[in-house]
Amino acid sequence: MPTIVTWLGHATWLVKAGADLILIDPFLDDNPAAPYKADKVSPNFILISHGHGDHVADAAQIAKRTGALVLANYEICNWLGAQGVKNTLAHNLGGGSQHSFGRVQFTLAHHSSSLPDGANGGNPSGFLLSLADGNYYFACDTGLFYDMKLIGERGLKLAVLPIGDLFTMGPDDALAAVKLLKPQHVVPSHFNTWPPIEQDAQVWSRRVAAETSTKPHVLKPGDTLILP
Ligand code: NI
Ligand code: MN
Hints:
The longest helix has 11 residues, at 171-181. The chain is of the alpha/beta class. β9 (125-131) and β10 form a beta hairpin. It has helices at 53-56, 59-66, 74-81, 148-152, 171-181, 201-211; strands at residues 4-7, 13-17, 20-24, 45-47, 69-73, 88-91, 96-99, 102-108, 125-131, 134-138, 158-162, 185-189, 215-216, 224-226. α5 runs parallel beside α6. The protein has a single domain (4-226), classed as Ribonuclease Z/Hydroxyacylglutathione hydrolase-like (Metallo-beta-lactamase, Chain A, 4-Layer Sandwich), CATH 3.60.15. The protein binds nickel (II) ion and manganese (II) ion (MN). Nickel (II) ion is lined by residues 50, 52, 111, 141, 167.
């Protein structure tokens, strides 16, 4: 069964891998780009990259309703635990865990991670998902860093990269990231949710196609990607 990747707007992604539904950085109810609200999604895994509101907003609500296993850093797991989320598995950078869908490893991200109430959200991360049909890398919120080359050496089927600028890499650095990661496919994320992070993803996609051998895919919120 092929992996199905759906963009739910901003930095929220849904990955259907085999029988599992993995929700990454749930931000739906207050996300102006989301195709539907948080009560419409029922994952059995929730991955949280860092503590910012545009990544954790609906995590507790969805986790409590569905009982999904939340994979996040130790500080975010504790913060969710205090809100009544019982099913969490705490990680730290470089660590990973094995599940029915495959392995998830917490990768570096150069960003910050305070939680909405000011609590310490630990260190931010990205995710490397090793699924039945290949490695899927979600950089999540980060600037460009040269160690992306090491992640790329694993062999990536897909990289999901922020291009919005201001809070994360912008288009120029995201293009440099593609050159370090060398994924087969790339999809832009974390842009056009609000005016400060507006970008022309088609222009960026044409640069990727012209300067790298990676195939870019520009999605609209709600769109789905199935890779060959
Ligand atoms: Ni952030
Ligand atoms: Mn963000």
